DNA sequence: AAAAAAT
C-alpha cells in the first residue's frame, strides 16, 4: 500500500472498516470469512450513499470493488425491509441487477450469493445461451435478487416466470457497455416494467456524454461517485508496445509467451476468428491455450473461463467479450495481439492486470497500419507508451518446427477442444461433437493451394522473411475523423425524455 | 470494422 502513487486514492479511506457501516451481522460474517476488512475507495463512498436510499451514478473501472460497493448495501436494505414488513412466505424480486455480458452477470451473481450466504435472501442469475427452464423454475420458487442480461430477463417476463412489479432497487452495471451493445431499447422496456418508486444505481467505466444523458434520463437526483480519473490507466501497470510486421504478429505473441514463460495471460484479439486461430496456433506450440468469444457456446465459454481460473489453461485468447468486468484476479500480464479499434477498450483490456495492489504488464503488438490506433490510445490515456524491442525474436522460429511440426496435418474443425500434446486442458470437452450448426466461426483453415492471405495458418507456414512490401496506404493519419454522433441513441433518449 | 446479446 505504500507505493501507491498520488492519483486515484482520494481522501484516503484507509482507516475505514466494513464494520463501520452498520451492516447486518449476517453480512459482516460473510465479509470476515472472506477476509474483507477495509473497503476500497468506491466501496467506502458508495455504501453509505446507497444505504441512504439515494440514486447513484458511479464511475468506476473494473477492479475497484464496485460489485461489493452496490451489492452489500442492497442486501442490507433488503434485510431491513424484510424485517419490517415482509411476509416470509413470499419472495418477490426486489433488487434487479443488469449486466451486459453473461460472464459478468455470472460473476456478479457469485459475489452476491457469497454476501447473502448467511442471510435468508435468495438470489439467482439469468442469461441467454442456456436452457431457460431451470432458470424459470428457480424464479418461480421466489428470489429477492435477480442478476440478468437484458434479453433473457425480458424473455422470462414474457413467459411470466417473473414479475418485476415489486422491484425496489435497480442496478445497471457497465452501463456504457450496455449502450455500446445496443441494449438501450431493452433497458427501456425493462424499466417500464418497474415501479416508479425505486432506487437506481448506475455504474460505468467511462463517463461519456451519452452516459451522462442516460443517467439524466433514468436516475433521479443521483449522487455522483467517481474513483480515479476516468479513462486513466492503472498506475501500476507497466505498458509497452512492440512493432512488428503484420504477418509476424502471431509469432511475436508466441515469442513473448515462450520467452517470459508466462502463465495466466489473457491475449486480446479483435476478431472471433483471430482469437480461435491464435489459440489453436499456441496449442500447436505446446502451450495450454484456449479461446473465449461470442461464437462459442455458453458451455464452452464457461469451461474456458473456469479452466483458466483453475490454472489448467495458461493463455486465454479472448475477444472483447472479456475486456470488461470479468473478475479474473491477479493477472500478471495482458497482451494485445491486436490494438483495439476503440481506444477506450484498451483501458478496459489492460485493466485486467495490475489489480488489487498487484503490479502488471500490458504488452501490445502492433504493425504499421495500427499507428493511428496507437496514437488514439496514447491520446486517451494521456501518456506515451514505451516502444520496446523484442529481444531474440526471430520470426518463424519455433519449437514445433524443430520437431518437424510443419508437416502436421491441419487441425480439424473444433480443434480447440483437442488436447495439446502436452496433455492438460480438454477445452470444451465436446468430445466428437463438432458440428454445432454454426458455420464458419471456428472452422479450420482450408489448405487450398498457394493462398498467401491471412487465412493460412501461421503455424503451418514455413518461415519466409517479411517482404518490404508494406503497402503504404496509411498516408493520411490526420483528419478523417468521422465520429458520427449516433443518431439512434440520441433519438431513443429523446423519446425517453418525452415520457 | 468488430464484438456482444433472446430465440
From TrEMBL:
The record's EC number reads 3.6.4.13
- Report domain DEAD-box RNA helicase Q positions: 16-44
Source superkingdom: Bacteria
Motif Q motif: where in chain: 16-44
Its UniProt entry gives the catalysed reaction(s) as: ATP + H2O = ADP + phosphate + H(+)
Q: Does the keyword Nucleotide-binding apply?
A: yes
Q: Where is the composition biased (Low complexity)?
A: 466-483
Q: Which GO terms describe its biological process?
A: response to temperature stimulus; ribosome assembly
Query: Which PANTHER family does this UniProt record tie to the protein?
Result: ATP-DEPENDENT RNA HELICASE RHLE (PTHR47959:SF13), ATP-DEPENDENT RNA HELICASE RHLE-RELATED (PTHR47959)
Q: What is this protein called?
A: DEAD-box ATP-dependent RNA helicase RhpA
Q: Which organism is it from?
A: Pseudoduganella albidiflava
Classification lineage: Bacteria, Pseudomonadati, Pseudomonadota, Betaproteobacteria, Burkholderiales
Q: Which gene encodes it?
A: rhlE
Amino acid at each position: 500500500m505504500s507505493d501507491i502513487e498520488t492519483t486515484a486514492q482520494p481522501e484516503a479511506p484507509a482507516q475505514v472498516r466494513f464494520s463501520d457501516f452498520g451492516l447486518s451481522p449476517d453480512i459482516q460474517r460473510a465479509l470476515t470469512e472472506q477476509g474483507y476488512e477495509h473497503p476500497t475507495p468506491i466501496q467506502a463512498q458508495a455504501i453509505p450513499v446507497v444505504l441512504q436510499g439515494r440514486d447513484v451514478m458511479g464511475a468506476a473501472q473494473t477492479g475497484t470493488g464496485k460489485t461489493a460497493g452496490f451489492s452489500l448495501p442492497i442486501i442490507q436494505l433488503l434485510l431491513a425491509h424484510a424485517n419490517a414488513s415482509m411476509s416470509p412466505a413470499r419472495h418477490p424480486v426486489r433488487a434487479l441487477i443488469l449486466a451486459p455480458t453473461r460472464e459478468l452477470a455470472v460473476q456478479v451473481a457469485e459475489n452476491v450469493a457469497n454476501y447473502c450466504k448467511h442471510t435468508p435472501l435468495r438470489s439467482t442469475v439469468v442469461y441467454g445461451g442456456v436452457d431457460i427452464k431451470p432458470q424459470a423454475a428457480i424464479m418461480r420458487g421466489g428470489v429477492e435478487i435477480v442478476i440478468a442480461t437484458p434479453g433473457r430477463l425480458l424473455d422470462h417476463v414474457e413467459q411470466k416466470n417473473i414479475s418485476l412489479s415489486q422491484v425496489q432497487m435497480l442496478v445497471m452495471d457497465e452501463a456504457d457497455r450496455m449502450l455500446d451493445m445496443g441494449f438501450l431499447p431493452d433497458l427501456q422496456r425493462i424499466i417500464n416494467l418497474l415501479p416508479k418508486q425505486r432506487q437506481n444505481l448506475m455504474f460505468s467505466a467511462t463517463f461519456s456524454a451519452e452516459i451522462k444523458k442516460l443517467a439524466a434520463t433514468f436516475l433521479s437526483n443521483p449522487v455522483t461517485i467517481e474513483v480515479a480519473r476516468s479513462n486513466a490507466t492503472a498506475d501500476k501497470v507497466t505498458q509497452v508496445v512492440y512493432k512488428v510486421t503484420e504477418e509476424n504478429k502471431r509469432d511475436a505473441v508466441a515469442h513473448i509467451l515462450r520467452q517470459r514463460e508466462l502463465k495466466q495471460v489473457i491475449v486480446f484479439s479483435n476478431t472471433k476468428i483471430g482469437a480461435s486461430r491464435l489459440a489453436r496456433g499456441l496449442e500447436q506450440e505446446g502451450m495450454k491455450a484456449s479461446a473465449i468469444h461470442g461464437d462459442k457456446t455458453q458451455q464452452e465459454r464457461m469451461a474456458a473461463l473456469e479452466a483458466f481460473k483453475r490454472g489448467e489453461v495458461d493463455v486465454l485468447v479472448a475477444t472483447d467479450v472479456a475486456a470488461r468486468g470479468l473478475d479474473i484476479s491477479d493477472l500478471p500480464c495482458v497482451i494485445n495481439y491486436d490494438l483495439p479499434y476503440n481506444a477506450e477498450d484498451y483501458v478496459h483490456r489492460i485493466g485486467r492486470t495490475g489489480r488489487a495492489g498487484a503490479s502488471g504488464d500490458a504488452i501490445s503488438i502492433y504493425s504499421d497500419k495500427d499507428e493511428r490506433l496507437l496514437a488514439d490510445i496514447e491520446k486517451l490515456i494521456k501518456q506515451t507508451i514505451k516502444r520496446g524491442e523484442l529481444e531474440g525474436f526471430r520470426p518463424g522460429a519455433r519449437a514445433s518446427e524443430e520437431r518437424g511440426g510443419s508437416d502436421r496435418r491441419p487441425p480439424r474443425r473444433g480443434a480447440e477442444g483437442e488436447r495439446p500434446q502436452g496433455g492438460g486442458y480438454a477445452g470444451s470437452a465436446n468430445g466428437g461433437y463438432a458440428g454445432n450448426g454454426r458455420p464458419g466461426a471456428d472452422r479450420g483453415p482450408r489448405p487450398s493451394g498457394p493462398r498467401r492471405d491471412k487465412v493460412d495458418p501461421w503455424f503451418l507456414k514455413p518461415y519466409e522473411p517479411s517482404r518490404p512490401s508494406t503497402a503504404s496506404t496509411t498516408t493520411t493519419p490526420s483528419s478523417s475523423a468521422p465520429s458520427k454522433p449516433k443518431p439512434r441513441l440520441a433519438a431513443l433518449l429523446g423519446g425517453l425524455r418525452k415520457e
